[in-house]
Write a structure and sequence with these properties.
272 residues; mainly alpha; globular
Length: 272
Amino acid sequence: MDLIQAIVLGLVQGLTEFLPISSSGHLLLLPALFGWEDPGAGFTAVIQLGTVLAVLIYFWKDLVAAVSAWWRSLYDKEAHKTKEARLGWAVFVGTFPVVIAGLLLEDQIDTAFRSSLLVAGMLIGVALVMWLAELVGKRNRDLESVSTKDGLIVGLWQALSLVPGASRSGSTIAGALFLGMDRATAARFSFLLSVPSVLGSGLYKLVKDRSELVEGGAMPTIVAAIMAFVSGYAAIAFLIGFLQRHSTAVFIVYRIALGCVIIALVASGIMK
């Protein structure tokens, strides 16, 4: 991988990690379209560390408050009643489904799931789920109302993002909308919930695939992670502001259109 490819993949990773259009799907499809080598699931997971850093910086105060309150709640029953502690427990519990599913399906994620048609199907399928969530969601809950049960349910939706094309933010925002959260709250909770799982996945892949990553050149991976941080931070700010005024309709239409294009490219033999 040369530095131009790393810059492009990093920018796309940051933008599509937080916009509900699937980062893993785009990182699988771009190399196929331009004739580049598949960077692999390890590269994808490691450069997500850049997007995690963007979330940490953007939501630093929220994260510190939630973690501190969660820690105090372990030995102080009264602390457990605070909204910060509830948010901390929601993120903690909500992380388990994706961790368990990720460990059980690790081989499939690295091989069988990296299919263009599967990506297309997930892009369209989750788009329809997002559309349904927009229709039935009451959108009358804010972040202060989030409970541990909410964390578990949205965490189950997050596990769906292990399949390329599903989108972590797309599946979790849809899950939060089904629970009655307003759109901006759904996005904020989605971003906060992503921190432990994406950080853990990135560090795990960094250690496990370190030899492969070094052989491919450490510099492209570092450059891609930096680009992912820059574009990811911008994407967070954009999406939260956008969803305060608009629905997710534009992303739903984009997902369906992209899925149809991919199917057409595979049918014509341009993509595998």
